[in-house]
What we know:
- The radius of gyration is 22 Å and the shape is elongated.
- The longest helix is centred in the first third of the chain and has 46 residues, at about 5-50.
- It is about 45% helix and about 30% strand.
- The N and C termini lie far apart (about 65 Å).
- It has four helices and six strands.
- A hairpin with a 5-residue loop joins strand 2 (about 80-90) and strand 3.
- By secondary structure, the chain is of the alpha/beta class.
- Strands 2-3-4-6-5 form a five-stranded mixed β-barrel.
- It has two domains: about 1-50; about 55-150, CATH 2.40.50.140.
Amino acid sequence: MTEEKKKSKFGRGCLIVLGIFVILVVIGAIAGGDGAKEGKKEAAPAAESKPARAVTAREIAKAYDANEAAAQKEYGGQKLAVTGTVAGVDLGLMDEPIIKLEGINQFMPVQASFDKSFTDRSAQLAKGQKVTVTCEKLGEVAGFAMLDDCTM
Length: 152
């Protein structure tokens, strides 16, 4: 065997091993993510005993537009029952439903993320429809209010 062929086989073997490693990391990340969600589900019954604070999506959007830190202090860390008008329904990276609720303008919706089990229910929603979602978490990404661990 020539030196060039040996290097080619070695390089190909390294690429195969690297490819298998990447696949295992991706599978581990997906499986690990599911385990983290199961942990959240176990902790959820304690949070469910608290009544949800009623608020509108527009109130949240207005508060975040005025002062993100103050809005997070006012609404964060509590269960929220958010009522709003559906501006759209999208799917996240893992095909989980995300409902966009009208905020103070068309460029700043309040987004509510759901578990995949709500896919069929979210598929029945239409723009302009009024909904109330109950969410365990509130945060923000780039100035947008993001509701998480939501149910309908």
